[in-house]
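REQUEST ID: PR-0412
SUBMITTED BY: lab tech R.K.
PRIORITY: routine
TASK: structure prediction, single protein chain
INPUT:
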Amino acid sequence: MTGSIDTIVAEFDRKPIQIDTLEQRLNEASTTLRVEAIRQLTPNRQRRLFAACSGRTVTTEDIVADDVAALTEVIHEGQNTLPMFRAFQKRFCLPSKQHQPDNRRILWGYNHQTFSGITGPGYFVAYDDDDTGEVVIDYRELPPEKPDEWPPIIENTARLGRFVYAGMVDRLRRVADGVTIGRAYKSEPMNAYFALVRT
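STATUS: complete
OUTPUT:
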């Protein structure tokens, strides 16, 4: 049953994870099945998957393709390792030409989740780390613009966001086409992981 939920979940539990086989299973699966699969990722599975994806390059072009119009959102369904409210979305877009720097490719984004009214939307700037082959999601930097339908941009030190987003960066690694695994950092690596599926 190539590409079934059972075969994908079985790959999560292999020791060690056979990442090339998992990538093939996910690439053969529909977007709906991929999202269903990441919903099965327990904290331990996410920790092991992040380690297994070390050195697997992902770029901002994998997150939002070049042919997407500026300020058009691209939604990535997410699953994190929090005790509750584990399902969420990261929403990304390309900047307008006016705000696109010459020296790097960047994305704007925010976190769409149940408790954003308490923590704030968690806006960030995403960019490539050429040294590690990872995409960095940087909450220390705020976008100067956003799509009209996104919530207002507020500082990540506002509300309870100061305990969640302030001073934080996430690092993404490639799992498969449109599928990434991330870990949060605040000066040191945190025991906080998440998986994303581009929809």
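NOTES: The beta strands are 74-80, 87-93, 106-112, 124-129, 134-138, 169-176, 179-186, 188-198.
REVIEWED BY: pending
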